[in-house]
Amino acid sequence: MFTTALAQRDNTQLGALPRDLFAAIESLKKELNAVILAHYYQEPDIQDIADFIGDSLQLANAAAKTHADVIVFAGVHFMAETAKILNPDKLVLLPDLTAGCSLADSCPPQDFADFKAAHPGHLVISYINCSAEIKAMSDIICTSSNAVKIVQQIPKEQPIIFAPDRNLGRYVMEQTKRDLVLWQGSCIVHETFSEKKMVQLKIAHPQAEAIAHPECETSVLRHASFIGSTAALLKYCQESPTKEFIVATEPGIIHQMQKLAPHKQFIPAPPMNNCNCNECPFMRLNTLEKLYLAMKNRAPEITMSEEIRLAALRPMQRMLEMSV
Ligand code: 13P
Ligand code: SF4
What we know:
It is a single chain. By secondary structure, the chain is an alpha/beta fold. The chain folds into 3 domains: 4-100 and 282-304, NadA-like (Rossmann fold), CATH 3.40.50; 103-188 and 308-322, NadA-like (Rossmann fold, 3-Layer(aba) Sandwich); 195-268, Rossmann fold. It contains 16 helices and 12 strands. Strands 2-1-3-4 form a 4-stranded parallel beta sheet, with helices on both faces. The protein has a 4-stranded parallel beta sheet with strand order 6-5-7-8. Strand 1, helix 3 and strand 2 (52-54) form a beta-alpha-beta unit. Helix 1 packs antiparallel against helix 15 (288-297) and helix 4 (56-65) runs parallel beside helix 5. [4Fe-4S] cluster binds at residues 101, 187, 280.
């Protein structure tokens, strides 16, 4: 306990660091038999040192399959928690333990338990962007890659609660033509895009195609010619003959877009104000320095009670089975 607290403090104080962080991280990777899993919203340096980069579903699959002893999760808390749910015997490290998620936070467990109790007979499908406690209260987990596919597999007469993202929920309702009871949560990053500025940008770049993540509001989604998870957006940009894209999701993804299609142009969709609020402040808490220190100190570590883990594992496994 004391060691973890001490190490956490060190990770934010960033004491003495090696000159070549990349080399030091590579060497710790071998020493620990560690794998670095990174989300597309991480800063470019972290994406470049990662063993695997992906969207939430790809990362959950990678975490389920890894043979490494240590998982270093370069993402946010609920993602590292998911890796721990799938790997109780592995050490799961998160470079900054305070890297949370506004969407996960918009669904407090006690309030959700009351909501569930108010809707008896409903199947609970929860977006992976939620805490282990919410997962433990769910029947099936989904991600933005498989939400539509999972809802389509549920018999039509079965009522469903969809939590916590109202925007993804609305999008799934539209795609499946089903009525879902939505928890009213949202992501501060994806709700920051401005419809007005998006339209102005489309006028200024008439050849560009607008693409968006389904966590965006309907007013933004209606201007997109393609909607998908981060991995789906990346694939679409590579395969489409279009040379210019307006990208309505966290701009961290543009690093991979640019790498995979260097001859194309990617324009981040503009936020409401002249701020950087389209960058996820939680994802950006992880840095290469903190990642190095987490590996060196073997902390901060993700832990949870076995009772919650087992309850959260069941809907996670259902998702993995239903999305093959
Ligand atoms: P995906 O990884 O499913 O695209 O979700 C994006 C996101 O907001 C992760 O926090
Ligand atoms: Fe959460 Fe939104 Fe950040 Fe994803 S982008 S981690 S949903 S706050």
